[in-house]
Specification:
Blueprint: E1 13-17, E2 20-26, E3 32-38, E4 44-48, E5 51-53, E6 56-62, E7 69-75, E8 78-79, E9 84-85, E10 99-101, E11 135-137, E12 159-162, H1 164-168, H2 182-185, H3 188-197, E13 201-204, E14 208-210, H4 214-218, E15 229-235, H5 246-262, E16 266-271, H6 288-296, H7 322-339, E17 343-346, H8 364-370, E18 379-382, E19 401-405, H9 406-418, H10 423-430, H11 434-437, E20 447-450, H12 459-462, H13 498-517, E21 521-525, H14 557-572, E22 594-597, H15 606-609, E23 617-622, E24 626-633, E25 639-642, E26 649-653, E27 668-671, E28 675-682
Parallel strand pairs: 12-13, 12-21, 13-16, 16-17, 17-18, 18-19, 19-20, 20-21
Antiparallel strand pairs: 1-2, 2-6, 3-4, 3-7, 5-6, 7-11, 8-9, 10-11, 14-15, 22-23, 23-24, 24-28, 25-27, 26-28
Length: 685
């Protein structure tokens, strides 16, 4: 194999071209970068990258091809107090690696400093870790897909958040060898279930290559959720049916997306571009830290030896740097073009808009992303907060972004379970949080409404536990949310008390109906529709076991039928998925697009909105041909509602899902405790 030629500074990473492989990597402060090549026996050969164009180091290796295993070694100043942590004794993973080989093991050699040294992380470790480090492998591009993407309109979108492993790991309908894998999610039995449920868009927890934290490894646990990325371009082998073959894993993931697309289902990925698995300044040197710590990470202004920890995970990627913006955009384009995914949910998304300190809706990342032609069709969802200064930014993300709306989550929980929130706040949330999103060119779909998500209680636990029970996580029950706005209806955890079980079931149905009938984009947590429990654990990120996996053998089939019915009604009635802001002003025909009513049928007044003693509420609206009327009763006793003029037909009674609407209701409707009723009325011709 010939020596390296200068090659080209683009594209970044390892690229097959012209009978060889071109390598390019960014480092502004390095003084030298070596390419480390490994043969089948693990022997290493080092070649200096001969080309440098600005901050890009590059070289071309003639005769090389797919399957070549390599790493990087960066030389430069080791001056932690100035933010520089170069150590050529530490083999570095290419941040653009498409395939990653090796099995990561925690140990002192993975750190750039001498663990246990009196100078701590300021010391220098001259020992080599090449035999233990993760390595990249040159990958051949996948063939283009012939399956078109569904491109579901935002107004019709129903998100379904799931973990690839947890969804099928215990599903007896999926072949045993495929359970818990990409192929398991693509299995016909899994797809048939999703289609029958009625969701449109899968929001998958992270698939990028991630590591478990050292603390978890010591406890015999693992980072099951995967929010600890080290390989931004590489699928996680833990979710593969062939985990030891990175090429087969890539093909399996691509086949999963194609199968879901063929069934009309979109695929969104939860991506973590706010931090990496390298942790804080005492963490390991695996990739970006060794390539250019001061470039890739936010360094504390008053202590250049430390990282800004605006993520709670030790470090924060510096999206104020153009090269970091490029890394993120290149990764997004790769997952879109190579695997065909339809969009992304950005974990701790406020980090992406910090330029350089405060959040800016016109930050460089947003400007670059929203004009990118490859990503033009991608659905974009932000988790609109981080732990930095002014980190809560709900409603301020730009352009095509949708946002996780925790105000909806907390308000709806408090309304139904605690009656600790007023009708005005509840009305704002089910009207797509117009106080947060009704500005500029944003539409109601920008509000991603949810009751539960991967982070927190499941729906079954929300109505069964007042307190979190996270002891299995090994942190003394200190981790996880403290304010859950949950209720146990008199008994903490499982019970055989029929009255308590009935109250819990009624509350679950009311919460689900509110979610799926509210204006905005609804998101279901996988398993909530069949009563999945995590035994009171509201932070099961490290529980790769039955606590997190969906237990299909215990599925609540009646609840599943109810959710299917709710989703069918959402599809049936356009008034339940209107993606424009509705007016309360009188229209030309004398009616209103939306009207809020008291239980006696009279319009809500200013005094009514501020009356904290009463919580019942009615809302009516429609599209001109069919009007819908929602009656909400969170009280502990039944309430009679006076109906607006017309003949009203019962569509759903969450207190009694089997109740049908054969006989029209003319004047009054009784709504049972902790329940809602949806009625429809055909307008007179």
């Amino acid at each position: 194999m010939a020596l390296l030629h200068p090659g080209l500074p683009h594209p970044l990473g390892a690229t097959l071209r012209d009978g060889g492989v071109n390598f390019a990597v960014v480092s502004e402060h390095a003084q030298r970068i070596d390419l480390a090549l490994f043969d089948d026996a693990g022997a290493e050969r080092r070649l200096r990258l001969p080309g440098r164009s600005g901050d890009v180091w590059h070289g071309f290796l003639p005769g090389a091809g797919a399957g070549l295993v390599y790493g990087l070694r960066a030389s430069g100043p080791y001056e932690p107090r100035r933010g520089h942590r170069f150590n050529p004794n530490k083999l570095l993973l290419d941040p653009y690696a498409r395939e990653i080989v090796g099995r990561f093991q925690w140990g002192d050699l993975q750190h750039g400093y001498q663990v246990g040294h009196p100078d701590g992380h300021l010391s220098f470790d001259a020992r080599d870790n090449g035999a233990l480090a993760l390595k990249a492998r040159v990958a051949a591009p996948l063939a283009a897909s012939g399956v078109p993407a569904p491109q579901v309109p935002l107004a019709d979108t129903v998100l379904y958040e799931l973990h690839v492993k947890g969804f099928s790991r215990l599903n007896p309908e999926v072949p045993a060898a495929l359970r818990g894998t990409y192929a398991g999610l693509a299995d016909p039995a899994a797809i048939a279930y999703l289609r029958a449920l009625g969701v449109t868009t899968l929001s998958l927890q992270p698939l990028q290559y991630a590591l478990s934290e050292q603390r978890l490894a010591r406890l015999g646990l693992s980072n099951y959720w995967g929010y600890n990325t080290i390989g931004f371009f590489c699928p996680d082998p833990r979710l593969s049916s062939t985990p030891l073959d990175p090429s087969a894993t890539r093909r399996e993931l691509r086949a999963m997306v194609e199968a879901l697309h063929a069934a009309g289902l979109e695929v969104l990925l939860d991506v973590v571009f706010n931090h990496t698995a390298e942790g804080d300044q005492t963490g390991p040197t695996l990739s970006l830290r060794g390539l250019d710590n001061a470039l890739y990470y936010r360094i504390a202004g008053d202590d250049r030896g430390s990282h800004e920890n605006w993520t709670g995970c030790g470090n924060t990627l510096n999206l104020a740097q153009p090269r970091v913006v490029q890394l993120v955009l290149d990764a997004l384009r790769y997952w879109t073009s190579e695997f065909g995914v339809d969009g992304f949910r950005f974990d701790l998304g406020t980090v992406l808009g910090r330029a350089p300190l405060a959040f800016d809706p016109h930050a460089p990342f947003f400007v670059a992303l929203l004009q990118d032609p490859v990503l033009a069709r991608a659905k974009l969802i932000a988790e609109p907060w981080d732990l930095g200064p002014d980190g809560y930014q709900l409603g301020r993300f730009p352009g095509r972004f949708l946002e996780w709306n925790d105000r909806f989550r907390d308000t709806v929980r408090r309304y139904w379970l605690l009656r600790s929130v007023g009708r005005g706040e509840f009305a704002r949330r089910i009207a797509a949080s117009n106080d947060r999103f009704h500005h500029g060119l944003r539409t109601p779909s920008a509000s991603v409404n949810y009751i539960t998500a991967h982070d927190g209680f499941t729906l079954a636990d929300l109505v069964s536990y007042r307190h979190k029970h996270n002891h299995a996580n090994g942190e003394g029950n200190r981790d996880g949310h403290h304010a859950n706005f949950s209720a146990n209806f008199g008994v903490e955890g499982p019970t055989g008390d029929a009255a308590v079980c009935e109250q819990r079931a009624r509350a679950r149905r009311a919460l689900l109906a509110t979610l799926l009938f509210a204006q905005g984009t609804p998101m279901l947590l996988a398993g909530d529709e069949i009563g999945r429990t995590q035994r009171g654990n509201n932070n099961a990120y490290c529980q790769d076991n039955e606590i997190s996996w969906i237990d299909w053998a215990r599925a609540d089939r009646a609840l599943l039928a109810f959710v299917r019915r709710l989703l069918a009604l959402r599809r049936q009635y356009p008034a339940l998925r209107v993606d424009r802001w509705l007016s309360e002003a009188r229209q030309g025909d004398g009616g209103r697009e939306v009207e809020w009513l008291r239980s006696d049928g009279q319009p809500m007044t200013v005094a009514d909105w501020h009356d904290e003693r009463r919580h019942c509420l009615a809302v009516t609206g429609g599209d001109g041909s069919v009007r819908l009327l929602g009656l909400f009763n969170p009280e502990p006793t039944a309430v009679d509602f006076t109906l607006p003029p017309g003949a009203w037909r019962l569509e759903v009674d969450s207190a009694d899902p089997a109740r049908t609407g054969a006989a029209p209701l003319l004047d009054r409707a009784r709504v049972q405790a902790i329940s809602l009723v949806l009625l429809s009325s055909v307008a007179a011709s």
